Every structure is written in C-alpha cells, then in structure tokens.
Amino acid sequence: MGFSTDAIHAGQTPDQVTGAVSTPIYMTSTYAQDELGVHKGYEYGRTHNLTRQSLEKNIATLEKGKYGIAFASGLSAENAILGLMRAGDHAIVSNNVYGGTYRLFELIMKDYGLTFSWVDTTIVSNIENAISSNTKMVYIESPTNPMLNLTDIEAVSKICRKNNLICVVDNTFMTPFFQNPLALGADVAIHSTTKYLNGHCDIVGGILVTNDDKLHERFRYLQNAVGAIPSPFDCWLTLRSTKTLAVRMKQHQENALKIAQYLEKHPHVKKVIYPGLRSHPQYELAEKQMSGFGGMVSVEFKDFSTAKKVLNNVKVFTLAESLGGVESLVCHPASMTHASVPKEEREKYGLTDSIVRFSVGIEDVEDLIADIEQALY
Ligand SMILES: *Cc1c(COP(=O)(O)O)cnc(C)c1O
C-alpha cells in the first residue's frame, strides 16, 4: 500500500461491537476476566490497551517496521533505549542532539554507570575511531536539532553491523514520510510523536520502531515494567493525526523552502540552514537518504540583537519551544531548547546566540514571510 493509504488504515479496523469507523478510545485501567485464567488477552491498562496497539501498528507500518512501542514522551522512549545498556556500557552519540537527549544521557544516566562519547557523526570515521571494547550502541539524530546536520545513516548502519553495535536513529525531524532509518539499515527508529507525527501541539508522546524480535521483546518489557505509557486519549489523538501526515509534510516542506529562499537573500541574514537548499553542505546526502527536506529552517542573523528583534516581534509565528505543529513556531535554541548544553559545547558546533529556529507551519506562506519581514523592520 502507499504511504497515505497505510497512514489512514494501518492498525485500524472498524469496531467489532458497533462498527465505529474511528478507533475507540479505550479509557480503562482493567478488564473483566471471563473466569479464572480466562480472558480476552487484556489484563491491565499499563500492559494492554487497544487504542495504543492501533497507534503502535499504525506508526510501525509507516516506518517500515514490524513493531512499534509507544511511550509517554520522546524522552521516555529514549530512556527505554538506554534500558538496552548496563552499567559499564558505552554509547557513541551525535554531538548535536536534542538538548533533552544530552541532559538524559550525560546528566542523568552517566550517574548509573553508562558512558557516552559525543562525536561529530557527520564524519562517519569519527564513529569508528570512538568504538571501544565496551561500546554497545551508536545513537544518531539526522537531521540534528537545530543545526540540521546530516549523518549518513546507511554508512553508520554498516559500521554498526560490522562491530555488533545497535544503531538507533532519532527520526523526529523527517518523519517516516521523508526518511526511513530501518530501510537504510538502522535497528531502531525513535520519534518524539509530540512533533510532526501528532502535529497539532496538543500532546506529548514518543515511539520506538524496530524489526528486531529481541529488541522488541526488551522494549515491550520495559514499557510495562517502567510504565511510561501514553494515555489512550493521547494515542487516539496521534492516530487521528497520522492520517494527515503526508499532506501536512508536503505543505510544511513547500512553505519551509520558500521561507529559506526568502531569508537566504535577506541583507540581515548571515546564513540559512535548510537541507533543501543547494548551499547546505550535505545537500547531496539529503537527496540520497531523504525523500524530502522537512519543515525546519535555522537562520543565523547578522547579530544577536537582530535575532532578538525577530523573536520578539513576530505575530503569526509564536515564540515557543517545540516544533512540528500545523502552527508556525519560532525559538531561540541557545537559551531555550539547548539551555542545558554548556555555551562552549554548543558554540563548538556553531550554535551561536544569533541563531533562530523556525518550525514552519502550514499557514499561507505569504503571511509567514510578511510576518518575518515586518518583525525585522
Ligand atoms: C522533542 C524531541 C525529543 C524529546 O521528545 P519529548 O516528546 O519532548 O520528550 C527528542 N528528539 C527530538 C529530535 C526532539 O525534537
């Protein structure tokens, strides 16, 4: 089936009892058992929920995977990934990941005996050089947030296979519509469903997708044992949202490209970072491993005061953290999403105070461009 057909139908069949076309929201913590030891396969809400199962099947199908395991947030999904490791194990991680990922790994899990090497994974040989005898995992984000650096997923997957390492890719920015890490050889794709998959800025959630039976078994165990599950209502909202993922992503991309092209010519702009621009240093890799370029545009203005002017004066864009919703958002990564990353660390990879990140929504693009224009003057 095509992507949109799967998006609308995978994991969903009309309700057995009433024929309801929309998957019911099973708001229940427990299930009646027919007699001692006999039940319908549903025992307790943390372990089993049909709305959640529908969502898991739906996103797994879009991500070309066998299994989806849903969590209460992207970070709780990441926490389950770290549940594959034990004290003494080592992971190699992209040095420019989501700020919360850095915080969870470096500021929390390090205290539990895990160790991390933060490397520039845009240069694949850096990964090979960082492998040691206790390395278990390579964790990459592509494109990264907010620098939109790409890592060659196929090349990294090959290195992982050769060295018996688990390859994890955070695919939040591209979504399965534009990029499929599992098809490129990765073991696990992770999403913050809070972003494009849900797409309406009204829930927080996460999901892991894998084809590997053993990894699935461990993730399923952790989902139940740790208990960071999404609510049935949040699952339903996300399931409602994936139906329109294809049309939303096409519009996000069309608007983002127009804004990137407008800003690239602007006298107050030093640099526009968007994988769909030929000026992007990894434009060729973008064309190779992605089927589109997404809706995120990062812009380095000529100085901090210009950046501040944009952030404070936009009216259609909303100054807020997060991304991927139908509504356009703007943020200042250095002081917002990446505030927990030390200044020296972030400036090493180019995240200066003059960078503004635009999450381009699906409003009329003329209104979005006019909004940035009026904010600058
Ligand atoms: C938001 C985000 C996360 C964390 O997800 P939450 O749902 O906020 O917990 C992880 N990775 C990326 C790329 C993100 O944008």
Protein traits:
377 residues, alpha/beta, Aspartate Aminotransferase, domain 1, 2 domains, seven-stranded mixed beta sheet, 15% strand, globular, binds pyridoxal-5'-phosphate
Provide a descriptive summary of the structure in words:
The chain has helices at residues 3-9, 50-62, 74-82, 99-108, 125-130, 153-163, 175-178, 213-226, 232-242, 245-264, 283-289, 304-313, 343-348, 365-376, and strands at residues 67-71, 90-94, 115-119, 135-141, 166-170, 188-192, 206-210, 269-273, 296-301, 318-319, 329-331, 355-359. By secondary structure, it is α/β, with parallel strands linked by helices. A seven-stranded mixed β-sheet has the order 1-7-6-5-4-2-3, sandwiched between helices. Helix 6 links the parallel strand 4 and strand 5. Helix 2 packs parallel to helix 9 (232-242), helix 3 packs parallel to helix 4 (99-108) and helix 12 (304-313) crosses helix 14. The chain starts with a helix and ends with a helix. The mean pLDDT is 96.
